[in-house]
Amino acid sequence: MRFRHPDGTTVHLAYCTNVHPAETLDGVLAQLRDHCEPVRRRLGRDRLGIGLWLAKDAARALDTDPAALRGLRAELDRRGLEVVTLNGFPYEGFGAEEVKYRVYKPDWADPERLDHTTALARVLTGLLPDDLTEGSISTLPLGWRTTWTATRADAAHAALLTLAERLDALADLTGRSVRVGLEPEPGCIVETTGDALAPLTAVGHPRIGVCVDTCHLATSFEDPHTALDALATAHVPVVKSQLSAALHAEHPHLPSVREALAAFDEPRFLHQTRTVGTTGRHGTDDLGQALAGDALPDTSPWRSHFHVPLHAAPAAPLTSTLPVLKDALTRLVGGPHPLTRHLEVETYTWQALPPELRPRGRSQLADGIAAELALARDLLTDLGLKELP
Fold it and tell me: What predicted TM-score, i.e. pTM, was given to this entire model?
């Protein structure tokens, strides 16, 4: 979906296909048929943006076979879909029964991460619509904190410098610019937007910036305006923003609240949980750890990294951080000029919701995704952007 900002800039809205895990190119093609096109039809749109997640095998197939890449691009056109952004964070296995810490491997100290991201950039230049010359990729925020060392930090810095060189060369070759954004996430070396400033200013390249995920922003209790102002002051570009909402518990000391939270403690994904008190920010790596005894202070609200549907906040006594998303979006695209042109709804946890909240089959899932995109569309038009055909 495309929108015209009052300054004349085109802003793109997509939804991320990591909600439909597929490891192979055939699986990606099936996603377009079974999920993406039905969502487009529900929205009554001739064209719908999707943020493709390409696992390593699918990316390699597209990168090494020009005919396969042309075929995917033709299939996108045939189904009324367009791609301006890729999710390059998960490398493989995002549809596994247990993902947890595995999603952070390989990290940016591992040559596989650089090679994979370079392949994604090459693929994206072949998928961009004919009338566009700029794409974006979101990626791992360097690595998980407990495995990080000075040696790995040096290797990651060198990899990002090499990536910048490769992106420059790719732009010279194709006439198309791809930018890559580190996606701050709780528990990682780059947990907050503030943590991104040092490594990214050290790289100092306009094609390497930040992907602002509004669920992660909220989970870390970052103020959107403060965070985005700091990025702008440091001249760190917001390559893209993922529109998502976290789980919020206002009174975590109450037994009824803990019981409600326990329903979201599931075995597939990691749900980092944070609180902020008089002694600063405290956290656990997973929701179950927070609920176990006194691992996390419960005198202040808790937020958990669980991407809940944008249009359907959890029932009381829980809620979502949709207000944080709205504040961030106001700063991102509500000013005289947009801070980013690529927005992506990213709720990948539909099938991890408590059983009674999960969609039953493809049709209900398509209904839910379409409702999220409709909400995002309304937020954009309320900010003065005009929806384009």
Answer: 0.97
